[in-house]
Amino acid sequence: MTTTAATSVPPELDAGALARWRDGGGKLIELFEAARELGPVAGFRLGERRIVLVTGAEQVQHVLAKNPDTYVKHGHRAKVLLGDGLLCASGEPWKRQRKVLHPQFTGRGIRAYEPQIRAAVAGIAERWAAAAATGEAREIDADLRHFSLEVIWRSLTAHPLDPETHQRLIAAGDSLAAIPAFAPATGEIADDFREANERADVAAAHAIALAGEAEEPHLLAVLLKAAAELPDYTERLVRDELLTLVVAGYETTATALSWLFLLLDAHPEQRDWALAAGPVGSPERAAAIRALVDETLRLYPVAWLMPRYAAAADTLDGLAVEAGMTVLLCPYLTHRDAELWPDPEEFRPQRFLEAGRRPVPGAYFPFGLGPRACVGAQFAVREMVLLLEELLPAYRAEIRETPEEVGYAITVHPAGPVRAVLHPQGE
């Protein structure tokens, strides 16, 4: 990639292509797919707005990892619910907030919360055992949302999730999930979130009250300690951080798990492969299950679209990016690039265990890249692996109702319930 002065601007879709896109229903992913055909850095216009789409691995690395101060977050579409929490913060406040939370989400930090994760695993295992005994079909996507929400609630408060709080948080999460993928980043849609914010406020106050009673390690203790010691950590910021961890954290993990069970239903041999990799509790089995997770996140990344704002002019792949442009990175498309991933549409987790076949920098970024990568990425993967180590040997989920469409909002998700019959399995 050249670093000399840019000689041209990114190629743009012409008016005819945009018209065909609108006439075909105007789905964003189809617009992005058309733009990608122009190259790893391409453009299009939405009204007067000039958009640059970046899908090449080298170019992704340039934007997210090498030049994060040039390509910055400029507000966030989730701010109407999550306020100034880590997901939506920027600049110096973001740096201070990440410094507070980051130690909790390292490998060492996560170990303190494993008892809470395992308690949530036991809860879903009990529900699935009851369903398997009766043969009833369950909406396993709802079970997986409950599991993921239980994990983060227990980790925050060291208490189990009660039904009333569960409903409040699910409602808030549903409101967040309904935000369009390419929505305004400010208060333009705030009126639609008044009720969701009220529910979230009640849940946050309840969490803080519970945390004050807890003796085990819990994440809220970290936030409350920061509030006592740091002037920037106001009561409102504690609320925003808490809700960011809960609402933004549970939906992404639950969605990834829903995709994984859909993929295993279509490819049952991959479940058998993972379980045959080694005995219960072995590093070999854990690695194979982790590969199932990694491959699911390749096909259905946690954040399928990552907007950035060009704070200064730059040269990207020899092309001029002007200050003020919106730059979109789309791991969903980068992860399906045949030049980066052989047979990209195929669900093949073994690719993550092949010697010498590590993805090139910028080719795989389901949780983002660089300093703005998701702080909870290791936590999310760990909770998924622990759940799958328990459920995969015990049950085969036969999908009885598969969503016909894929939804592209803040997450890329199955657009409808995932209903399955759980068949007991023995090793």
From TrEMBL:
Entry keyword annotation includes Iron: yes
Binding residues annotated for heme, in chain numbering: C374
Gene3D superfamilies, per the entry: Cytochrome P450 (1.10.630.10)
Cofactor: heme
Record's keyword annotation contains Metal-binding: yes
Keywords: Heme, Iron, Metal-binding, Monooxygenase, Oxidoreductase
SUPFAM superfamilies (UniProt xref): Cytochrome P450
The organism's place on the tree of life at top rank: Bacteria
Protein name, as recorded: Putative cytochrome P450
Species of provenance: Kitasatospora setae (strain ATCC 33774 / DSM 43861 / JCM 3304 / KCC A-0304 / NBRC 14216 / KM-6054)
Taxon lineage: Bacteria, Bacillati, Actinomycetota, Actinomycetes, Kitasatosporales
